[in-house]
């Protein structure tokens, strides 16, 4: 397993897609040296974007979280979240009516930018649920799990309406050693209990990469060959990037520690084009 | 799909295993006519037992719930719950130490009958979690789902200890039209997030049927050919009974309504020996 | 469940995507009346394309199969097969070397259009397998299942190379009452045995719909709102179309017979925009 | 991860259950030193039995395979194969008629010991398939995979009869570096294509351990506490033994090499009571 120098790789591409957590920041803040990477990309005219399965907040609020760790050049227009795909789905498929959601008021941003009424599941009165057109799983916070997961289960049993999840991740880190179940795991549980097929948005699904690909064309008219996907997770960043036809870098600064990387690759067969310690440029 | 008369079938066996919910009682109380069935079995000297995936309460408290709907002959010794299997596992595999559990204080009965200390996950201090020897999923009530499911996830990530679930069901009815996610669905979610293999007790697993089979021998020394399993659910009662070598009756008074029975059987290939409207004897 | 008139629906769109089997033809030949549908679309200037998970033959040979049943206007440029996506993957991710495949010589078309060497798994000598860069599952015919599935399993265990399947379907009809396992089911089996993640192309995956969407733009510069997906299978045509943001028609002339349609929709929660007897225009 | 001396462990039990492949023998023959283990157990009066998911041959022929590698004391009565469970299922659930099977003529032993007619799927004439009462998956050899797997798929689609698999393993070793897909993987594929639930016999299922437990009582009237399960595979031998309440030894002479054992245990949470280099007694 050859560990490569990130700078020597990234310099060959015109656009870089970064995963967020484990690549640019972690529970402690900014990952060492990625501020110099951003400076380098700016200097070289290499485009960069953040592809994140985080639908808990708007791109504006997500960008704020980068500014707070000193990455001031990551502006909202550089952020592509799976919530934006959920929003696009709603725009095409739900013309009117109410959208019931699991998540915080912040996550409801992805519904409210459309001319749709967002209602937290917890506030839904079954008597008036008749005009709910879709259920959206946005975030694992902002609701009472016991009460509201059971409300969703019964809503989907009684009404034949679609359900979508704006983040297919199963868990996310909350501190150095602790994780929390993500909304993707809650959606899996509802699917397990009801048998209903929930539509998933987010890496590794191709739709995420196409959305990003089309998003960058006006600023950077590039081919897939010119884009590098950088991530820390084999099953989302690397699998999705590979399948879409991009070159991929797996970094060892997040979910996949150095001493397990080789074994994970062999066990799953998901193989990044390159492996680097991190996305930092260190000199 | 031939619908048979329950009395003409049950009269040919020496022992009957009944599923509980959907067969003997439902959200409204006792299922019509099963009191006469119990009278008939008593009169004929046919043994009968309740096999239930309900680990929320002791056999004594479960028996009380039958007495309240007028089935006074269903005494604790006639009840075989999946909690008893969990208890047996603990007796053989956990000689000492603390057992962390998800569930109500009533469900902790299955731990406390042993010389083990039962601690609700919610009260577990990570600093003293070092002497927890096993995690037991007992009931979906009695804890804060968000806080305590995440505590279990992290406990299983950090400690290499077994986890068992005393009820592999995914949902149970709470009223005529509503269900709730059962502890089996919560265990599936924890397995999905952690990758850890959780040991499942309860129908359709063979161990449940063997436990019952051995339990009845002192009173009724019978062969498998002499036992009839009566249930309303193809994937638990009928599949498990068939696999263990028992004849099976599917009743249409619970999970499997008459208009869907044929289709469910064809879709799954799980075929009961007989189909009856209910377990009632009606004349 | 309201059954709609196909003509009144299709007339509102600018482009139609048809699934192939069960929609335009079946084991007996052309589905009654779809020739008139094609005439109507031609007359109205509505674009139409066939989206098929059939990677067993080139678009040219697939078009021939339509000509033989009298649908002469379905030319190769109107056919979008999942094999074309597999080919695109190879073009981006495999620059040189050998491609080992399961399938007929006809299916190898999707490899040979690139500057890559296609080798049937059966002819692969393990001693020279070192320069195989990827395994492609193309078709269920053309090889000895026992010998060659085991060869693939061992190749993927020994070499850390990607594997892709150009058709994620599990089965396909071979006569009125018989089906055969498709290459997608064989890929699932290899994944089950090896634990290696196989990359899947074809409906319902979004990449198939995007490929088609981009393919039609030069001839028909349309928005998603202007495209109608017509299919007979909820889990591929309808789920994939819905997720991509298209309106969808489920026809009852194929996999989903009229007497089961409502139940399938309720069981899965996958809901087409419209339901029609078939894609025929009948007056 | 503490490696223990096998002799010091085994000496504390009254009965030992051995897995076969990877524990007593491998592709090269007998595993070094297990002949001395058998001598030791004989001398100490410790009972020993082989629990194997191999349903390809009768216990007599399986015993022969041990004799050929010099383990002459492993007589047919010491062998408990998953085929015997399949046979028991047929005895209770299929009173008459034809049994269609996938496997070699040798594997049909488990059907022919009953008063049932065994017919290879390949010889089955669909016109006379009406009196087939059950399908049994016995062995991966002895039939044309392509033709006969498709025949089974269509038979199960058309007839509502049960299907059982007498070996739930997915793969087995055929040489030092090669494996072959086992009949369990073929059964999984048929389940994947048809949606029909196939009944599985063999470790880790509890029924295998109960069968063995009851089998040994006449010779060795022991409690579960007195039995040691020795295996090389976490997901079958160790999981099944643990769940049934037995102490377990994982040996490093087979499927689970020493350098991966700790990681496999941590990833799955399946934890043996002890770990030993092998089941050999070496002085």
Notes on the protein architecture:
The structure is a homotetramer of 283-residue chains. Chain A folds into two domains: 6-53 and 210-276, HAD superfamily/HAD-like (Rossmann fold, 3-Layer(aba) Sandwich), CATH 3.40.50; 83-200, HAD superfamily/HAD-like (Rossmann fold, 3-Layer(aba) Sandwich), CATH 3.40.50.1000. The first copy, chain A, starts with a strand and ends in a 7-residue tail after the last strand. Chain A is built from ten helices and 16 strands. By secondary structure, chain A is α/β, with parallel strands linked by helices. In chain A, the strands form four sheets. Chain A has a seven-stranded parallel sheet, with helices on both faces. In chain A, strands 8-7-9-10-13 form a five-stranded parallel sheet. The mean pLDDT of chain A is 95. In chain A, β15 (247-251), α10 (258-268) and β16 form a beta-alpha-beta unit. At the B-D interface, α4, α8, α9 and α10 of B face α4, α8, α9 and α10 of D.
List keywords for this structure.
7-stranded parallel sheet, 283 residues, alpha/beta, hydrolase (chains A, B, C, D), 5-stranded parallel sheet, HAD-SF_hydro_IIA (chains A, B, C, D), 35% helix, Rossmann fold, HAD-superfamily class IIA hydrolase, TIGR01459 (chains A, B, C, D), globular, homotetramer
């Amino acid at each position: 397993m050859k560990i490569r120098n990130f700078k020597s790789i990234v310099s060959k591409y015109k656009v870089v897609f970064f995963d967020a957590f484990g690549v640019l920041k972690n529970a402690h803040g900014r990952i060492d040296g990625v501020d110099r990477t951003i400076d380098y990309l700016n200097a070289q005219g290499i485009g960069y974007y953040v592809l994140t399965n985080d639908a808990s907040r708007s791109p504006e609020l997500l960008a704020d979280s980068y500014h707070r760790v000193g990455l001031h050049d990551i502006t909202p227009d550089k952020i592509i979240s799976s919530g934006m795909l959920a929003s696009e789905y709603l725009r095409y498929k739900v013309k009117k009516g109410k959208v019931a959601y699991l998540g915080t008021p912040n996550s409801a941003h992805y519904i409210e930018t459309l001319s749709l009424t967002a209602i937290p599941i917890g506030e839904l009165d079954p008597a008036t649920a008749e005009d709910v057109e879709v259920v959206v799983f946005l975030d694992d916070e902002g609701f009472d799990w016991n009460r509201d997961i059971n409300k969703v289960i019964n809503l989907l049993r009684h009404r034949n309406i679609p359900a979508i999840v704006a983040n297919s991740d199963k868990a996310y880190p909350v501190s150095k050693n602790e994780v929390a179940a993500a909304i993707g795991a809650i959606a899996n549980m509802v699917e397990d209990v009801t048998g209903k097929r929930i539509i998933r948005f987010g890496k590794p699904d191709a739709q995420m990469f196409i959305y990003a690909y089309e998003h960058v064309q006006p600023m950077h008219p590039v081919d897939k060959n010119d884009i590098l996907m950088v991530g820390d997770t084999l099953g989302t960043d690397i699998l999705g990037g590979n399948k879409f036809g991009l070159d991929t870098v797996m970094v060892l600064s997040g979910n996949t520690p150095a001493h397990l990387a080789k074994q994970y690759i062999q066990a799953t067969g998901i193989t990044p084009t390159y492996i680097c310690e991190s996305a930092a440029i260190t000199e």
